[in-house]
Amino acid sequence: MTIQETQDLHDGLDPAASLASIAYERIKTKLIMLDIRPGSPINDGALAAELGVGRTPVREALKRLETDHLVVSYSRRGTFATTVDVTELGAISDIRQLLEPHAARRAAENATPRLRAELRDAAEKIRHLEIADGDRNNFLREDMSVHHLIYRASANAHLENVLIRYDNLATRIWCLVIDKLPDLVEHIRDHAFLLEAIADGDGDSAAQLALDHVTRFDQAIRRFL
User: Fold this and answer.
1) Both 209 and 125 in a single domain?
2) Using alpha carbons only, what angle is made at residue 127 by residues 123 and 132, rounded to the nearest 5 degrees?
3) What is the pTM of this model?
4) Of all helices (H) and strands (E), which one includes residue 78?
5) Mutual orientation of helices 113-127 and 136-153 as an angle, nearest 10°?
6) Do 35 and 145 lie in a common domain?
7) End-to-end distance of the chain based on CA atoms, in angstroms?
């Protein structure tokens, strides 16, 4: 499906705003997965052609991505993908170790019945993940989707937005060492217990499991930096 075909599904939305949002999501994924290499210049014309949109939606997307710390713009020099500074891992982990357990607890308290069913479905799916099911980038996307589901279930849009930003930054660091991690599938399967605790409304267990997960992530990355 092209960007324009996707746009056609967004009835009732402002066309320019919707195209900018779609461009934002697509470019953001490229930056997080390092498909756009850290420090690389960003050619808005080339991106527009690749995504099948005009330059205006791409430029609007890049403005949003700058607030996410994924791109940086310099006068007379242009826009670049931000570098991945591994020295920031400690600061990122510090924030996530505080907020991820809080989000998990709030999700356990606030998730709607529909979201609890979605959480259980996600737990069942990741329990059966195998390396043959996809490449490592697909597993990273699976990891991100699980985290974003938890954030959404917390029913706090501000908390969700903050955590998505820091999860994105953490994932970029993860991408640097992903080929060195032997237990990637197990790392993602660990989410099953967390998702079920949230679906069961067990806030204490959910918070502890979320903290354990973020801490193990930090420890695993540090072994290879």
Assistant:
1) yes
2) 130
3) 0.84
4) strand 78-81
5) 160
6) no
7) 38
Domain end, chosen from 81, 103, 133, is at 81
CA 119 to chain CA mean position, Å: 17
- For residue 148, what are the contacts with CB-CB under 8 A and spacing of at least 6? 160, 164, 167
* 23 alpha-carbon distance from chain centroid: 16
Please report, for the domain that includes residue 154, its CATH number: 1.20.120.530
Same domain for 156 and 210, yes or no, is yes
CA distance 107 to 196: 11
Take residue 114 and report the two structure tokens written for it: 């529909």
Q: How far is CA 225 from CA 145, 170, 181, 221, in A?
A: 25, 13, 11, 6
Indicate the residue among 59, 81, 103 that finishes a domain. Answer: 81
From first to last of the 225 residues of the chain, give the pLDDT tens digit: 344 434 443 444 455 568 899 999 999 999 999 999 999 999 999 999 999 999 999 999 999 999 999 999 998 899 999 999 888 999 999 999 999 999 999 999 999 999 999 999 999 998 887 755 556 677 888 889 999 999 999 999 999 999 999 999 999 998 888 777 766 777 788 899 999 999 999 999 999 999 999 998 888 888 877
Domain that holds residue 121: 86-222
pLDDT in tens, 46-94: 999 999 999 999 999 999 999 999 999 998 899 999 999 888 999 999 9
Total number of domains in the chain:
2
> Which phi and psi angles does 182 have, rounded to 5°?
-80, -20
| Same-domain check for residues 21 and 50 | yes
